[in-house]
Amino acid sequence: MPAIRIRDLTKKYKEVVAVDALSLDIEQGELFALLGVNGAGKTTTLKMLSTLLAPTSGDALLDGKSICRDGDAVREILDISMQETAVARKLTVAENVAFYAALSGQTKEEAAASARAVSDIFGLDSVMDRRADKLSGGWQRKLSIALALVSRPRILFLDEPTLGLDVLARRELWKAISSLKEKMTIILTTHSMEEAQALADRIGIMKSGHLLFVGTKEELYAKTGKSSVEDAFIEIVSGGDE
Amino acid sequence: MRGSLSRVYTLTSRNFKEILRDPLSLIFMLAMPLAMEVLFYFLFHEMTDQFAMKYLAPGIVVFAQAFLALFTGLLIALDRSTAFLTRLYVSRAKSAEFIFGYALALIPAVLVQTVLFFVVGGIIDPSIWGIGMLRCLPVALCTALFYIGVGILLGTLCNEKSVGGVASIVIAGQSVLSGMWFPTEGLPSGMVALMKCLPFKNAADCMRSALNGTADPTADFWIPFCIVLAYAAVSFGAAIFIFRKRMRFR
What we know:
The structure holds two protein chains of two kinds.
Chain A: E1 4-13, E2 16-26, E3 31-36, H1 42-49, E4 57-62, E5 65-66, H2 71-77, E6 78-81, H3 93-103, H4 108-122, H5 137-150, E7 155-159, H6 167-178, E8 185-190, H7 193-199, E9 202-207, E10 210-215, H8 217-224, H9 229-238
Parallel strand pairs in A: 3-8, 3-9, 6-7, 7-8
Antiparallel strand pairs in A: 1-2, 1-4, 4-5, 9-10
Chain B: H1 2-20, H2 23-44, H3 53-81, H4 84-89, H5 95-124, H6 131-157, H7 162-176, H8 189-197, H9 199-212, H10 217-247
Helix pairs in contact in B: 1-5, 2-3, 2-5, 3-5, 3-6, 3-7, 3-9, 5-6, 6-9, 6-10, 9-10
């Protein structure tokens, strides 16, 4: 059974169709990159999958649990890192981690283990005692993504994780995200073709709420005759559903 | 049930730390009202009975509570604007747990305010010491519910830029419509009737009655107290309804 099974997922705002009958399967342990220009429907899709937004029609099963009928069960197995940095500003990094661990029902021992695990992945050791609002933008972003792992989700959504980061911070974050591959199922939305190229097992390309392409990088190159994700993306988006 | 209580404790503890570590909240909720209490007493208490400590201290307690609305609203509005709250929506916490988490975080502030203003008032004017001070503690917790409820409502409806402006209306209302700073006897009857319908004067009146005692407890304490409680119930009810509606579709 795929980790995520999306069927005819649709979101309409009055006359505007933000996501139109999206159907897609994502396998266990896969890192799936969702590409698209602004307004393509990527964030709306993630918000529906994470139960933050009600679909107009359609459904999705996350580990077999419906986002429409089993919201509580779905929230037990997923976490999300939003586009915006989402941390408790006046809490230290250690307090932030402890807060998320406690909120997900972990015991003190489990919380300590979670703190060690995310600290190892994201290199948070040196900033554990610093307040979140005193950290640089890059560190805050790292912390924000690290917090999504504290609850030990089976499914993780990363909405434009490297948005606004400098090249060094971005590369560090890629390394951290790469280390999560196969440990959990990840959907990552991004504007960065380089990011998709570096991280994704498969790529989906959305435009105006429609999914125009799904496949591996190799399949994308073969379909478009291009040799980079960026060129192939432009070919697909500018050429409609060719 | 245990999981729910644990989440409320976790949320309360985080919110309490956020408020405690904001120097502005300490200045406006504690330092400024305290300075006003001391200054106004020494400047005006010989000129008018209005500023005798037995009226001033309970008035200041209620005035300082108006800032609870500002800082509760700011905390929630900031949590919303930074997507912190949206992210928490993808947790196991329920809307009622969020509301309790925000409300309970302010209770220590209410207790500190009440004790501080009465103790300092008692040091300045020892005549206010007595059982009345103890009566004021539970009354203060009840009147604070109205301001906390308004704060949750404002934080849910306003963004972090507008919440300060809207909350200042509540604070101004508490100042002007509570009858704390001037006698209400000479005011037009319509104005007095309005003040009696709104929670601000009622909150100050029941606090004063709790401290000083009264010959007519029904008129001077219970009716104003019930009016404030009714406003608290409405503000909390509206806050929970709107918070739940905005939280998610589940």
